[in-house]
Design goal:
225 residues, alpha/beta, eight-stranded mixed β-sheet, 7 helices, 26% helix
């Protein structure tokens, strides 16, 4: 996966690397795909893990209700999840699940009908994101594609910055343009593009550590063997 950031920063223009450490209001970053299958869930998890390794407290919110992936990724068998919190059936504290990485917490989601995703605005997702921003340095939101889901546009609009993922050899120009137009209409701040499955890229990925392989933190998914 290759990540190009045109300035991955909050709307208030604080660089993400300078995200506050507790006390101050945290940053919210949405990760969404130009189309389904563009790798947004993997990029969201890798971004959250990298920020946790940088010493930030991070909450990874699985808000792609049509195809939630984070519970399976981290082996969670959560009894409560995102919709239960939004429906008032479970307190937030009972739905935040720490994983085997210091600083990283996951708010998982269970699969839901498409209609449930469309009512996130009515369910108070904005209040939930604000509550998480008050508790974590960074909130990473795994969001559905904005060009095909109203909740994807909503989540991108609520975030301080948005990462748009595109899959090498599969995401077409029309899909990319439609996604950018959808983000613009939502008032989102598209701050970075992540190219996943970039096996055909001419330039080799940059290694963060010599002798540790071609990766930055865990940003190695999609690099060919």
């Amino acid at each position: 996966m290759a990540l190009h950031a045109a300035g991955l920063e909050a709307a208030r223009r604080e660089p993400l690397r300078d995200a506050p450490r507790g006390g101050a209001q945290g940053l919210a970053v949405a990760v969404t795909g130009a189309s389904r299958g563009a790798g947004a869930s993997s990029v969201a998890a890798l971004l959250a893990e990298s920020l946790a390794r940088m010493g930030r407290t991070v909450c990874l919110v699985d808000a792609d209700l049509r195809a939630p992936a984070q519970a399976a990724r981290y082996g969670l068998e959560a009894e409560t999840e995102l919709l239960a919190v939004l429906d008032g059936e479970a307190p937030l504290d009972d739905s935040l699940w720490p994983v085997d990485m210091p600083g990283l917490t996951v708010l998982p989601a269970a699969p839901a009908p498409p209609s449930r995703g469309e009512v996130l605005a009515e369910a108070g997702i904005d209040d939930l994101i604000d509550a998480l921003r008050a508790r974590f340095d960074v909130v990473v939101i795994d969001a559905p594609a904005p060009s095909s889901a109203a909740d994807g546009r909503l989540l991108a609009g609520l975030a301080d910055a948005t990462v748009l993922t595109m899959r090498w050899g599969r995401t077409g120009r029309a899909q990319a343009r439609a996604a950018m137009a959808a983000l613009e209409s939502a008032g989102a701040n598209p701050a970075a593009i992540a190219l996943t499955d970039a096996r055909g890229a001419a330039s080799p990925p940059v290694s963060a550590w010599s002798g540790r392989g071609a990766k930055y933190a865990r940003f190695a998914e999609g690099f060919a063997d």
